Description:
The structure is a single chain. By secondary structure, this protein is α+β, with helices and mostly antiparallel strands. It has a domain at 72-248: Collagenase (Catalytic Domain), CATH 3.40.390. The protein contains 7 helices and 17 strands. The strands form 6 sheets. Strands 3-10-11-9-5-8 form a 6-stranded mixed β-sheet, sandwiched between helices. Strands 15-17-16 form a 3-stranded antiparallel β-sheet. A two-stranded antiparallel ribbon has the order 1-2. Strand 10 (185-194) and strand 11 form a beta hairpin. Helix 4 (99-110) packs parallel to helix 6. The chain starts with a helix and ends with a strand. Zinc ion binds at residues 47-49, 235, 239, 256, 258-259.
Amino acid sequence: MLRKLLMATLVAQAFAGLVHARDVDMTSPYDPKVQDLTLRGEPPMLGIHWSREFSGNLQASRTSKPLMTNHGGKVMTTAIMQNIFWGASWANSTFVGDKITGLEAWYTGFSLSNYAHTTDEYSGSNGKVGPGTTYAGHIVDTTTASGGNRTSTILAEVCKRISPDPSGNGYYSVYSDVKRGNANYCAYHSEGTCGGVPVQFAFFWNLDGDSGCDPQDTSGQHSQGLAALANVSGHELSEARTDPSLGTWYDSSGSENGDKCAWTFGAPLVAFTNNISWKIQGEWSNAAYTAGTGYPNASGQKGCLSGK
Length: 308
Ligand SMILES: [Zn+2]
């Protein structure tokens, strides 16, 4: 009970002032957990990438079993990815800086990278996660952006701007120019449909100057804002591939492969296939944990991999 109460308090803090309390559905299809907050009538916020501070509080309150288990759902066997840059600031070249081109390079170089291979071991009802992905370009929408607190708003923006990949493996990242303010999370992933076609999507706050969502990349190769988006992009994409719709790979606390290694780094930089490197968190590997070959997460469980 105490634990439930603590969770409820954390959740209430996370969403204070953002969502009416009565809209937050604390009951879930499985165990109560912070992860699968479902806003009634809205697509779920999955694999929420909590800020550094909030993540630390959460860690202290959790006793997760190390291994993730397969809950029988589907995975993304591949990903056809597009970026949507939403908000008036994306017309401002100073704000844009290296972010649009940098994220383009990130999604292009992800395919077949050692980092992408960290999720190869996971299968779902529709097959195996494959390391090959396709980057299909970006869209700039300079209309006023929303924040991330209503997933239905983000899904509506996705459906307005893209034509969904008919394979159902479309993955659409919405990079908002809105800062997170009091929100305790940096990003999340979710799923829905556009005209009946399943889509995966992710939401990202503007992380410029946001120390709570900053991987502290000191390589000098990217702006701080780009480096922060790159790190959380890896977390969300890895989770969407292994648990796209709340029902495939997660642990006893509802933590997905990104969550289990959040804010831990196995290498100073991780090189993608286009030879561009990023400071990016590792992703949880059951196989590495079992073999004792991973690096430790924040709970000391050695199952995180930066590459494979
Ligand atoms: Zn997550």
